[in-house]
Design goal:
By secondary structure, the protein is an alpha+beta fold. The chain is 30% helix and 28% strand. The chain contains eleven helices and 18 strands.
């Protein structure tokens, strides 16, 4: 029998993620006496639950979700877990539809975007289809939530051998590090609350969690985002990301993430309607000019040293931070290609039980 939910109880899945800490910290600051619990989907967890969580629990099946008034997935893995076990689900007044996860297939998303007139970078799903024209490329995992590097390459021949497979997609390289974000909650394809930002530094350098963002209000970004969400009949929360292409003289779609995004703290503190729809709390906008994450900066010093020094003085600092581990700081200093090669060799070694036998063979036995 399903347990009656305890009032003001919140289960945040994947508590080690910054999105979970952003929501937990925001709830703490409301003074509403929430019980905030971290829900670990893997054991051992990615990182142990700590303040602002009261404690953490292991979540393996749908019955482990009972007894909480709010169950919130922090990242792509926990969002997929909740959809797999519950289908569409609700947080407060916001319904998150299972169909949203169609956009996790980036190749599918780009095809749809082009069909409705939202520009995307030239994209190839297979290495063999990339033209030998000497132009710069960008490669990344095809599926949202998949692990793997996101890097530029000077030409086709410079692509690492370990990305020349169907797990990755390849695009023309769009110069510039600025990423334009459109965070939203949508109902029947229409955004009902939005918050834009300009991301000027990321960790990792070529695409990842925001190190620094500035407030933004760009009509073209809103127009393109609304057009895409309407075509998808999107229901729930997410983040649309664009880069500006000087060749096209327009914005091109980079991602639509069907999950809470890494700079969520900025949206929660700047736009009270997010908290009102999710938790029924009438907050007050802090009218932030932007936000800076010092922990992510320390983990990405190699590419963000100067810009981090400048923005750390210009912008208020995020509250949803954790001290970076020594290995994270080192990863931000050593060349990205070294780190990628190390991860790939480690992945290959983990698959090998002994010469000639892979992990797949071992499972079959």
């Amino acid at each position: 029998m399903m347990t009656k939910p305890l009032k003001n109880s919140v289960l945040l899945l994947s508590p080690g993620r910054s999105q979970a800490r952003a929501i937990a910290n925001w709830l703490k600051r409301t003074g509403k006496n929430f019980l905030i619990v971290g829900g670990n989907l893997v054991k051992p967890p990615r990182s142990p639950a700590m303040k602002p969580f009261q404690y953490s629990v292991d979540v393996k099946k749908s019955s482990d979700l009972d007894g909480y008034q709010f169950v919130i997935p922090a990242g792509s893995h926990s969002t997929s877990f909740l959809v797999d076990h519950c289908g569409g689900f609700r947080v407060g007044k916001v319904f998150f539809a299972s169909d949203n996860l169609r956009v996790d297939d980036k190749a599918w998303l780009y095809d749809l975007s082009q069909s409705i007139g939202v520009s995307v970078p030239d994209t190839w799903s297979e290495f063999e289809c990339i033209p030998d024209d000497g132009n710069s490329l960008f490669y990344k995992p095809r599926w949202e939530g998949s692990t793997g590097p996101r890097r530029p390459a000077k030409k086709k021949d410079a692509l690492p051998f370990y990305v020349r497979n169907s797990d990755f997609i390849f695009q023309e390289y769009i110069p510039g590090r600025e990423v334009y974000g459109f965070g939203f909650i949508a109902k029947s394809g229409e955004p009902i609350v939005t918050c834009q930002h300009l991301e000027i530094a990321s960790n990792p350098l070529h695409g990842g969690s925001a190190v620094a963002v500035f407030a933004l209000d760009n009509q073209r970004i809103e127009e393109l985002s609304r057009k895409l969400l309407r075509a998808l009949n999107y229901e729930g929360w997410g983040l649309v990301e664009f880069k500006y292409c000087h060749r096209r003289k327009d914005f091109v779609l980079m991602e639509l993430n069907a999950k809470w995004w890494a700079s969520l703290e900025f949206a929660l503190r700047r736009e009270p309607a997010f908290g009102r729809l999710l938790f029924g709390i009438d907050g007050v906008s802090e009218n932030l000019p932007g936000l800076f994450w010092p922990d992510r900066y320390l983990s990405s010093l190699r590419g963000n040293l100067l810009i981090g020094i400048m923005t750390s003085k210009q912008l208020p600092w995020a509250q949803s931070i954790t001290p970076p581990l020594f290995r994270q700081i080192m990863a931000g200093i050593i060349p990205a290609s070294w780190a990628d090669l190390y991860r790939e060799k480690k992945r290959i070694m983990q698959k090998r039980v002994k010469p000639g036998i892979t992990l797949h063979d071992d499972i079959d036995n």
